[in-house]
Amino acid sequence: MTVTDNTTNRLDSLGASGDGPSFAILDEESKREIRRALLQAVAVPGYQVPFGSREMPVARGWGSGGLQVTLAIVGPDDTVKIIDQGDDEGVNAVNLRRLVVSSTGIPETTEAREASIIQSRHRIPEDELTATQTLVLQVPVPEPLRGIERDVRELARMHAEADYSRMWVSLYEDKVRNGVITQSTGYPCLVNGRYVVATTPIPRWDIPRLHMSQFLTLFGAGREKRVYAIPPHTIVEPLTFDDVPFEVERIEGAACRLCGSTDSFLVDSSGDVDSWACSDTAWCRARRSQG
Amino acid sequence: MRGPSPIPTPDPVLTVNGLGKIYGRDDAGTIDRTGSDAGSARDPITGAIVAAWDVNFEVAAGEAIGIVGESGSGKSTVLRCIAGDLEATSGDVRLSTHMEGRSNVLLADPATRRRMRIDQLSVVYQDPSEGLALSVTAGGNIADPLTAAGVRSFAKIRERASELLSRTEVPLNRMDDIVRNFSGGMRQRVQIARALANKPRILLLDEPTTGLDASVAAGVLDLIRGLLEELDLAAVVVSHDFSVIEMLTNRCIVMHHGRVVESALTDQLLEDPHHPYSQRLVSAARA
């Protein structure tokens, strides 16, 4: 059939044109659209900017938002580190890293200090990040008020008017029912005194490091099609009552069974008693090699 | 119809002038074709509903005005237009608490109107689920307006919530129970406590005891009367029930098919209603 032949020919010629697959998977127009959204996000800290989330080679909910942010900002001179739960060897981290590296040809690293772009889910590396580094967080639920209100128009209104009293009520209720504020990961924070953001899904441990940080943090939510940002030197305040101090996770007497650290974020590594280990595996390894 | 107001109101806290709400398409003749004399709020030509038209009254601090009338007479419409739940078609509403009464709040943007609801003007609805979050505790419902007003101390919220709940006679051991588990009368008391959280000057009550059984309603009415006296509030009470109006208000207006047909001192109205509709209403209530 001529029609089919023509179509096939056209598709073939499309594939043949240009210089093969584009740098960093996305076409330049898409990258530009994502960067424009990111610029707006940086200009209005904490504001969730809608963007045209693309179909990616990973499923939505598996880091497609963070991946698009990384691919939109990555250049040939960058070095990338990608972690999942603080671990460079997590299956999803490995896959995302392979995708970024194979489509750009840039070097990869597990050393937080060597990376110019760090893409992460669940953690900020223990190492102090600097002004030349960008942290990209993969966000499952960008809306901090989602558990409180389901109507998107009402949510937009609440953000527009900075009407966060129901967020405070949920913290009040939490404290009344449980004696403490139990929210652990994704603790809501007020950014630049204006917008409440979901710091999902990092633990409380990492929250203080977002406050007046040296580095830029970009949040990408692929399924929800939103990006937002915490620029360097921005005030980030975890929402809490004046007389209920914000506390980070700390387990009395716990130390990493590998490196002995007591001042890093520890996770239960095997389920046994006293089996705590650093969540940031690269940091833990570096500490051990230093002796 | 009697004069606009039998006694002039010195320093009104709430002033309502020419308030109107029309649903649907109206034309130049709609107002003449509707109202008490026409016998319907619905315009027979265009089908527009004139839910309320040309409503005027003033309320001073420490005073309560009643709005009476049958179901559908437009009394709740008036209240909701003042509160900002409904957008009025016409009129001028001033609060002495908002720009010292120099500005018509009906023209203020929705965000400004919502802010007025935090600490200037509160509403108590007939249905507690309109004024309360039923899945939240009694204390949490009071925490909402307090945090909206900027209170950030957990201890202060607890203190103010227990103060308000004791004043509205809600047992303090119920403070941390969710409101859904409360009886109707108790929910209404929580709603009143919440409405008073930030000491508003104006309180709008929409059928506050309708739907409660007689003995519970009497208790809630007693409470409201005590609060109105004690807190120097300017109050508007909407009710179809003359016993509520009689107990709470000094003056009242009677509405019929969206229009004010009579405006009088409450005891005068009950003794000697002038308008035929008021006469029917009073005799029905007295029967």
Topology of helices and strands:
The complex is a heterodimer of chains A (291) and B (287).
Chain A: H1 2-16, H2 28-43, E1 49-50, H3 64-73, E2 80-84, H4 91-104, E3 117-121, E4 134-138, H5 152-160, H6 165-178, E5 188-191, E6 195-198, E7 216-221, E8 226-230, E9 236-238, E10 266-268, E11 276-278, H7 281-290
Parallel strand pairs in A: 2-3, 3-4, 4-7
Antiparallel strand pairs in A: 1-8, 5-6, 5-9, 7-8, 10-11
Chain B: E1 12-23, E2 49-60, E3 64-68, H1 75-83, E4 90-95, H2 110-119, E5 121-124, H3 128-131, H4 138-148, H5 154-167, H6 184-195, E6 202-206, H7 214-231, E7 234-238, H8 242-248, E8 251-256, E9 259-265, H9 266-271, H10 276-286
Parallel strand pairs in B: 3-7, 3-8, 5-6, 6-7
Antiparallel strand pairs in B: 1-2, 1-4, 8-9
In short:
The complex is a heterodimer of chains A (291) and B (287). Chain A has 291 residues and is an alpha/beta fold.
List low-confidence stretches of chain A.
none
Strand order of the largest sheet of chain A: 1-8-7-4-3-2
Strand content of chain A: 15-25%
Q: Strand count, sense and closure of the main sheet of chain A?
A: 6 strands, mixed
End-to-end gap of chain B: 24 Å
Chain-averaged pLDDT of chain A = 91
Q: Give helix % range of chain A.
A: 25-40%
SSE string of chain B, helix = H, strand = E? EEEHEHEHHHHEHEHEEHH
Q: Identify the biggest protein-protein contact and residues per side.
A: A-B, 17 and 19 residues
What percent strand of chain B? 15-25%
Question: What global shape of chain B is seen?
Answer: globular
Structural class of chain A: alpha/beta
